[in-house]
Amino acid sequence: MNNLYSRLKNFLLIGAYKAIVTFEKIFNKGVVLDFLTKDFINNPYKTYNSMRAHKPILFSQTTRLHWVTKMEFAQEMLRDKRFSVDDRKYPIANKRRKEFKKAGREIMLDQFENPSMLKLDPPDHSRIRKLVQYGFTNRYITSLEPEIKKVVDSCLDRVHNQNSFDLIEDLAKPLPAIVIAKMMGLPNEDLDQFQAWSEDLLVGVGGIGTSKEDIKKSGDAYEALISYFEKIILTRKDSPGDDFIGKLIQAEEEGDKLNIKEMYGTCLLLLIAGHETTTRLIGNGMFTLFNHHDQMSHLIKNFELIPNAIEEMLRYEPPVHATVRFAENDMVYNNKSYKRGTPFAVSIAGANRDPEANENPNEFNIFRDNIKHISFGYGPHMCIGASLARIESRIAFESIFERFKQLELIDKNPVWGRNLIFRGFENLPIKLS
Ligand code: HEM
After folding, report:
1. What is the pLDDT of residues 273-328, one digit of tens each?
2. Contact (CB, 8 A) for 387 and 138
3. Is there an atom of ligand 1 within 6 Å of 320 CB?
4. Is the beta carbon of 36 within 6 A of some atom in ligand 1?
5. Contacts of 337 (CB under 8 A, 6+ apart)
6. Residue 135 C-alpha to ligand 1 middle, in angstroms?
7. 3-state secondary structure of 225
8. 44 lines ligand 1 (CB under 6 A)
9. pTM of this structure
10. Orientation of helix 92-102 relative to helix 106-113, angle to 10°
11. What residue segments make up the domains of the chain, in order of their start?
12. Which band of pLDDT confidence, cut at 50, 70 and 90, is reported for residue 239?
């Protein structure tokens, strides 16, 4: 009976979705964010380009969000105090609180009320960011290079004599996870478990056509991760140590710097942001190179170009496609009125392809000068781990090209994940010869 009910519900939901798409197509002269189609999943940029050309800030009925695809506006929204990240302040918060209560998600509700810095406006944002930044100084991150190289080498040693390897499973996933776990002082033996939890968690964030089961899986993973950090932090209170978690424990004990729940949120944010994104940068970047053979051959002979190529990969196939901001108060922006709490989807992917920001933006070109992208965000929330991600991916590409002279993509059309926020592959098998 339950099964029949949920099939009927799905049928009705898809029918309603299709009706909205048809209506929107008529209303917006053919422009629509139809995120369920294969075309969109394979090439969302075409849609973002048409949205920008129609209206740089376009309300999409399918997502109930105002999408911002023009670089100038995207940067302004990420930088300007009139746009906020703290969803607790707006009417949407009550809906979320009710959802958490109804689902019996006490831990999630607790964390919603005590979010990580990613979801905080000043002054709380600046208070926590300052603490976290101590763990990400350029000097410290650069000092990790030999350690990162060792991790890459050990991943590649394992596949060295094989005919093929999976770039995602064998290198792009473990590398950033091992590095962030080391920085945070998490036990190595927990690696598989927290990687599984973070993958499950992301299914519920920006997933396309997310099912009830996926939402449950994501909530379970979220709560398991918070409980995991709670246990780690409590057992380490007496001897905090010198790693990232140790420093947070000391900061919490000094008082008024961050509370214990903010600490859990910070650990969760670092763990997820610290590896899920870099995995996608390496995977998306390598796939793009395979589709631009001449540039790949040039790169293999000219390693000094790798850093610029990575910036172009970030611009062209960003791991994070969008982020959300809310109108802090009733406001007029670009000659249009918005109510307090209006949510905007700042389209990183769309802004990166704005022809006013980059010439021939739909062309992948590792030789491009002055690459303009917001793939690490912009303004006060700009990514804290950008230099770490750049170093990890540079060493990954250098090491692969050093070791393997002939590389060939086994599946020329790998399946992109179905997610509006995170873009990447589950697997990317590569033939070695
Ligand atoms: C290619 C890899 C990465 C990409 C594409 C990426 C992307 C981003 C983006 C777009 C934001 C801004 C979100 C917003 O404004 O709403 C952000 C923030 C953040 N990222 Fe990353 N990230 C990457 C790697 C990392 C790594 C390796 C770490 C840590 C080890 C990290 C930690 C953070 C943190 C803590 C924030 C929040 C900053 C704040 O709210 O002030 N990221 N990242």
Report:
1. 988 899 999 999 999 999 999 999 999 999 999 999 999 999 999 999 999 999 99
2. yes
3. yes
4. no
5. 330, 331
6. 14
7. helix
8. no
9. 0.95
10. 150
11. 64-432
12. confident
